[in-house]
Design brief:
5 helices; 0% strand
Length: 90
């Protein structure tokens, strides 16, 4: 990898890990929320041990907006978005 590109990638990763900016905190929350969604999907498929994965991911969400999104996901069925898009009644 060219040195300039390596430096840019290293700086971006460092900013993400340092969590010094709102963008970095948002990106970290998005990562944890995505992991939580995977856990919710696995739980819906019958994997009872997925609850620990969900709880762990939820506990690592830091921002108020991230927590609100995560809580909303916990109260939404895994296919509710599809049913709504198709105009189906719940």
């Amino acid at each position: 990898m060219p040195e300039a590109l390596a430096e840019a990638v290293t700086a971006i990763i460092g900013a993400y890990e340092d969590q010094d900016t709102p963008e970095a905190r948002c990106a970290k929350d998005a990562d944890k929320i995505e992991c939580m969604i995977q856990g919710i999907e696995y739980r819906a498929q019958g994997y009872a041990d997925a609850q620990r994965w969900i709880d762990n991911s939820l506990g690592r969400v830091q921002t108020a907006s991230g927590k609100a999104i995560a809580e909303s996901l916990l109260n939404t069925g895994t296919l509710d978005w599809l049913r709504e898009a198709l105009g189906e009644k719940p």
